[in-house]
Hints:
The complex is a heterodimer of chains A (about 120) and B (about 110).
Chain A: E1 4-7, E2 10-13, E3 19-25, E4 32-38, E5 45-51, E6 57-58, E7 67-70, E8 76-81, E9 90-97, E10 110-114
Parallel strand pairs in A: 2-10
Antiparallel strand pairs in A: 1-3, 3-8, 4-5, 4-9, 5-6, 7-8, 9-10
Chain B: E1 3-7, E2 10-14, E3 19-26, E4 33-38, E5 45-50, E6 56-59, E7 62-66, E8 70-75, E9 84-91, E10 99-101, E11 105-110
Parallel strand pairs in B: 2-11
Antiparallel strand pairs in B: 1-3, 3-8, 4-5, 4-9, 6-7, 7-8, 9-10, 9-11
Amino acid sequence: xxxxxxxxxxxxxxxxxxxxxxxxxxxxxxxxxxxxxxxxxxxxxxxxxxxxxxxxxxxxxxxxxxxxxxxxxxxxxxxxxxxxxxxxxxxxxxxxxxxxxxxxxxxxxxxxxxx
Amino acid sequence: xxxxxxxxxxxxxxxxxxxxxxxxxxxxxxxxxxxxxxxxxxxxxxxxxxxxxxxxxxxxxxxxxxxxxxxxxxxxxxxxxxxxxxxxxxxxxxxxxxxxxxxxxxxxxxx
Lengths: 115, 111
């Protein structure tokens, strides 16, 4: 399977601060990056889709100004949670994708806790 | 609207007690049904992809099958290390490669 590195694995931050999550695709060029969010005992929900060099597309109900996505290269994408609030506490998971790859692979996830 | 429903929500088995997990789906034009294993605090780990009714895939104690409306993940003689949440997902509509997930079945295998 593909090697995906997501960092950090967990982070605690204060309300109002920003947190950056990195996702690296180590063995293939990810033309697309999917960012998912998972609340306790719920399924993974797609937050946004980004294509390398383009602006991200956000799912309904996800604030684009709050969740900033940068996909400047084929191997790195970042998700920045700005002005974090306790309700943003969740498990964030990235999934790099390439058109010719049928399976989807995921990062290890980042547990964000906002206090 | 695409839907994926998994049952049961939780399952406790004795070591060696075989069982099946269910994934019912409603999607316009199936482009793949995926099974993943997720351990606590970790990202999903890919297990299988199924594309057409009648298809079956096996890996160690796991076997996935697919019909036109549902998929089953059969676990034969499970071991405690099989304890995890098993997620079912379908690929998005044509042109989209994101996955639409069910809520998972939390499996606990008791020694």
